[in-house]
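User: Structure tokens for this complex, please. No commentary.
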Amino acid sequence: EADIYQTPRYLVIGTGKKITLECSQTMGHDKMYWYQQDPGMELHLIHYSYGVNSTEKGDLSSESTVSRIRTEHFPLTLESARPSHTSQYLCASSPPGGANYGYTFGSGTRLTVV
Amino acid sequence: AQTVTQSQPEMSVQEAETVTLSCTYDTSENNYYLFWYKQPPSRQMILVIRQEAYKQQNATENRFSVNFQKAAKSFSLKISDSQLGDTAMYFCAFMPLNNNDMRFGAGTRLTVKP
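Assistant:
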């Protein structure tokens, strides 16, 4: 079973609304990541964190923001949702010195903005 | 920048047969890691197999094995004795040795037919 949890699994929301996608992990991993996944496209890194109070933007420009106040929690926020934000968002984590063993992924949040 | 290419958007295979998924990558790094991830429909992405570029021996995990050709920058996944539960999206990924910047291909959708 997953040790990294994302909520909600599915979200349909109107344009202009503020939303927060939750991601929590119980493994004590220091590194956490947010990816955007569109059908037929590679996963794009939008944010990552190497620990508490550390956040960085990834390759893909995103209007979202993240925070890392606690090791286990890495929420992603969209201040004003737009239809272009419709996508699947995947959260992942890796342990200290262990990213070379691969990431652990959550089940994803499929966001639809109408 | 490193790129990962999966040239087969979709593939199918009969149950119990063998299938090979292709992956090529582009990098100037000499040491790195390669991964295959499996994402079943509406489920969590999980690591299938990993390969360290400085090891010549191809990795094997039960019915899953890779053909790693470093000079050709090729990293294919072979699934033997395909099972219905192997139906999923398969993503190839690359990560340099000294950072956690994992790059993904666009994925191959594999369907195992009864």
